[in-house]
Design brief:
Helix content is 37%, strand content 16%. It is an alpha+beta fold.
């Protein structure tokens, strides 16, 4: 678990300069942050600065402190935290770890919460831990794409990640790949990269995406498709999600079942790959942000939630990172196809959360049966 004080982020901001260039620092500020990860949180010298976003409608004041737990990438954090500190004069203490570890910590601190906000993590995990979160719907939620609005009242979706196919453009030749059905082409047998849906969140997201796109979570024809696809995968399961997109980029596989963020980065980096959004339907899942119940810095927690849904931040994320914004008409970089041009289908997240074990068990039974033949 990595702890970073405000001092780290201010040094990163000094290197990056203007707010619009913060994200361009990417990993460079991560090293300075890591070097001072053991430093205690410093006190803000900015005092209490008037701070309310244009669409917020809140009276929250800047200055003071906030403690943020986050599993998010260095790029996303470097594009967000320094700008929040500078804009509102808030002293941020950031503690980084995996989502599961952070949720367990929040559970253990339930009677005396240390952090104020959990910035990042899967929507479904937050949904099944409702007792940990303070109800709050940002005034900026009205600008969010309808499917990803804060309808439950305590989870703020802020970025989206879609299940996609990544295709090696040097190897594909004249093989057509426009969606899931095309992956059953015998010419692709043993050339399809996927991680294990039982152990990989991105692979599980593809499992539920394909079931929904091919008929439904409980549909026999959809499950027959799962069988036929993994028969064509031919037992070659990657050890991790990164093994999928790296394997395709490196020419080990022709196509992979992956997710948009790293694939878009590979496109921007000039790798011989392209992204395919499945014609049968692509699911985009929102990353969450939640306010911890009983947060000691409640006003700043609400201010931070308003901030990450602001037009300024959403456009920075979409134009300079490979994280797709949740805001309607937000800017995106050239590697990401506009949402209007994608056949987007909506996951039933509560259903999938409640039936995850059953879905994994059914997949495992299919895969085990194929391997025994």
């Amino acid at each position: 678990m990595k702890k970073i004080s405000r001092r780290s982020f201010l040094s990163a901001a000094a290197v990056c300069g203007a707010a619009a260039a913060l994200t361009a620092c990417g990993g460079s500020s991560a090293s300075s942050a890591a070097a001072s990860s053991a430093a205690p949180a410093s006190s803000s010298s900015a005092g209490s600065t008037a701070a309310s976003t244009a669409a917020s409608g809140t009276a929250a004041q800047g200055g003071g402190d906030i403690v943020i737990y986050s599993p998010n990438s260095e790029g996303l954090l470097n594009a967000t935290i320094p700008l929040f500190e500078e804009k509102y004069g808030v002293n941020v203490e950031l503690i980084q770890a995996g989502t599961g570890e952070l949720v367990k910590r929040i559970q253990s601190e339930k009677n005396d919460p240390y952090a104020d906000v959990l910035f990042g993590g899967s929507w479904s995990l937050m949904y099944t831990n409702e007792d940990l979160w303070e109800p709050y719907v940002s005034a900026n939620d009205g600008n969010v794409i309808d499917a990803y609005k804060n309808k439950c009242g305590f989870i703020t979706g802020n970025v989206l990640d879609g299940s996609v196919l990544i295709v090696n453009t040097d190897l594909i030749g004249d093989i057509k790949i426009e969606g899931y059905e095309d992956l059953l082409n015998p010419a692709l047998k043993g050339k399809i990269a996927t991680a294990d849906p039982a152990n990989s969140s991105s692979a599980f997201a593809h499992l539920t995406n394909m079931l929904l796109a091919m008929g439904g979570y409980e549909d026999d024809k959809a499950w027959q498709y799962v069988h036929d696809l993994f028969e064509n995968v031919d037992g070659k399961i990657c050890e991790s999600s990164s093994g999928v997109y790296k394997g395709v980029a490196d020419g080990e596989y022709v196509v992979g079942l992956s997710y948009e963020d790293p694939c878009a980065q590979l496109v921007l980096d000039g790798a011989p790959v392209k992204i395919v959004y499945m014609k049968e339907g692509t699911v985009f899942l929102p990353a969450s942000a939640t306010i911890i119940k009983g947060a000691k810095n409640m006003d700043n927690a609400k201010l931070f939630i308003d901030f990450i849904l602001s037009e300024e931040v959403q456009n920075i994320w979409g134009s300079t990172l490979t994280n797709r914004p949740v805001m309607k008409d937000a800017a995106t970089n050239d590697a990401m196809t506009p949402m209007a041009d994608i056949n987007v289908i909506e996951e039933d997240i509560p259903y999938v959360s409640a039936h995850k074990a059953e879905l994994v068990d059914k997949y495992t039974e299919i895969f085990t049966d194929l391997q025994s033949k």
